[in-house]
Specification:
Its EC number is 2.10.1.1. Its cofactor is Mg(2+). One of its GO terms (molecular function) is molybdopterin molybdotransferase activity. Catalyzes the insertion of molybdate into adenylated molybdopterin with the concomitant release of AMP. The chain has 7 helices and 28 strands. It is of the alpha/beta class. It has 4 domains: 164 residues, Molybdenum Cofactor Biosythetic Enzyme, Chain A; 49 residues, Molybdopterin biosynthesis moea protein, domain 2 (Alpha-Beta Complex); 88 residues, Beta Complex (Molybdopterin biosynthesis moeA protein, domain 3), CATH 2.170.190; 71 residues, Beta-clip (Beta Barrel). It has a 6-stranded mixed β-sheet with strand order 7-4-6-5-9-8, with no helix packed on it. It is elongated. The mean pLDDT is 94.
């Protein structure tokens, strides 16, 4: 009797087998690097800012001369100049003097605070300050944001827009990132046809190739579709060999027949240096999932039903991609209250698709449908997990929804 793996056993297998997978890197412009994974520590070669600068529009002065200022007894200064943004001032601030300055302006020598315009009145070349200023007030010191020689971005850090901004601030035009994971996609089954063919008899259009292809793009992988293979062992073996040569991961989406599943398993086992890691998982949907390692590369035999196929991609293939790229769990989650009760009885961990309703509270409405129903995913906001030890979830229970 086949022993099914639990989903957390599968996670551990993926981690143990692929944690040392080495992706090559490439240099790209920083505007092309968004959402890519940094391939090395980035060290700042300059201070940011590289001069003391004002964070507000106001007046540069010596703060100790404002300590006794108030609404009835303002501190009075002679205005001796104006700091042009982008220019280094050619004057110093002496006792009793102040200078106009704008946000981003370079602090004149001897000034140690910037008073905001709202706390002053300027009249006939004089500045009246009605509120005390503190040392360093409204001044961003040299290197206060980023210190020269400090690590600003670490290896394996995802480059979000904020990180791209940091790279721009330290003068980087290019950055070394890991190449995208290459993913080959194969659909199998005698009943599967392409959208170019006429739909007749009991044939169905290929869905999984397209959902998997676009899911890879969402994960910033580089997918390639290899078309449809009928229930032919030799043809599948040959195409799988080609796909493995060209990709880091190969996804084989099976048809609905037992023969297709058997062919996928046999084709994987026939390859040199292949090792089947998982042959069935104790979850619903996705029980007939195959995971193998061929050399250093991964092969997934995914269920043929569209809902199960896409779920296993999000649950296991995405997990492998995170492992390869040294990322933490990148799933987006939200807490919600169950709108109605659900019952489970499969004896396996079940994942139930839900639709979220947003109002005074977030409600999760369970969606019911067979694993072949692609429109189920069209209506779903995410899914919840019901452990094998439970018989369901009651209305009003708080659940964690993994968004899709």
């Amino acid at each position: 009797m086949k022993v099914l793996k639990t989903y957390f056993e599968v996670f551990e297998i993926l981690k143990d087998e692929f944690c040392n997978f080495n992706l090559p890197s490439e240099k790209v412009s920083i505007q092309e690097a968004v959402f890519r994974i940094c391939a090395q520590d980035i060290i700042a070669e300059i201070d940011v800012p590289h001069f003391d600068k004002s964070t507000v529009d106001g007046y540069a002065l010596r703060c100790e001369e404002t300590f006794e200022a108030n609404d009835e007894n303002p501190a009075v200064f002679e205005i001796v100049g104006e700091v042009k943004t982008g220019k280094v001032p050619n004057f110093q601030i002496q006792k009793g003097q102040a200078a106009r300055i704008f946000t981003g302006g370079c602090i004149p020598q001897n000034a140690n605070a910037i008073v905001m315009i709202e706390n002053t009145i300027e009249e006939d070349g004089k500045l009246y300050v009605f509120k005390p200023a503190k040392p360093g007030e409204n001044i961003l010191r040299k290197g206060e944001d980023i210190k020269k020689d400090s690590i600003v971005i670490k290896k394996y850090q995802k480059l979000e827009p904020a990180q791209i901004g940091v790279l721009a601030a330290i003068g980087k035009k290019e950055v070394e990132v890991f190449k995208k994971i290459r993913v080959g996609i194969v659909s199998t089954g005698d009943e599967i046809i392409s959208q170019d063919e006429k739909l007749d008899s009991a044939k169905i259009y290929d869905v999984n190739s397209f959902t998997l292809f676009t899911s890879c793009y969402k994960e910033y992988a580089l997918p390639k579709m290899y078309g449809i293979v009928k229930d032919d062992f030799e043809a599948l073996k040959d195409l799988l060999s080609i796909a493995l040569q060209e990709n880091d991961i190969v996804l084989i989406s099976g048809g609905s027949s037992v023969g297709t599943y058997d062919n996928t398993l046999k084709a994987i086992e026939s390859l040199k240096d292949s090792k089947v890691l998982v042959d069935g998982v104790s979850i619903k949907p996705g029980k007939p999932t195959i995971i193998a390692k061929v050399g250093i590369k991964a092969v997934f035999g995914l269920p043929g039903h569209p809902v199960s196929c896409l779920f296993i991609f999000n649950f296991f293939v995405k997990k492998l991609m995170d492992i390869i790229l040294h990322q933490q769990d990148t799933s987006r989650k939200v807490l919600a209250k169950m709108k109605t009760s659900i019952a489970t009885s499969s004896g396996r961990t079940e994942f139930v698709f839900v639709k979220l309703h947003f109002g005074d509270e977030i409600l999760a409405e369970p969606l019911y449908g067979k694993s072949g129903s692609i429109n189920l995913l069209n209506n779903a906001s995410g899914y919840i997990r019901v452990d094998a030890t439970k018989t369901g979830i009651r209305s009003g229970d708080i659940v964690e929804v993994i968004l899709i």
